[in-house]
User: What shape does this take?
Amino acid sequence: MTIIKQTTDERTGVGDLFEQAFSRNPIESRIAACNQHELRPLFEQYLPGHTPILEAGCGSGCWAIWFQRRGWDCIGTDWSASLCAAAARAEPRAGFVAGDLRKLPFENSHFGAIVSLGSIEHVREGPMRI
Assistant: This one.
């Protein structure tokens, strides 16, 4: 499993707070919580099983790992290289890319679905750019 690092020019103290918050709880407990989440049945029903999923703004990587462990090919991406590295250690079969969501190294149509839970709305110029 390789983690691709990209540079980002908008890292702030807020990002450091998110990094600390995600690091407080063990990743396995975060992954287990996905089983109880209200979105789980919707993901299971509507996400295509034959195409890769991108989790944009994956934070701790718990959803990307959850998807991977349930048979989807999944790549998680986040600005935090340390969170991506920790997630990759927890699940080496999932891919993680540290970088800016607006400048990802993937071709258009590479993914069959994109999941973003609480990330793209924080981009200054709005979510459409992503």
In short: Residues 1-10 have pLDDT under 50 and may be disordered. Strands lie at 3-5, 53-56, 74-78, 95-98, 113-115. The helical segments are 13-24, 27-34, 40-46, 62-69, 81-90.
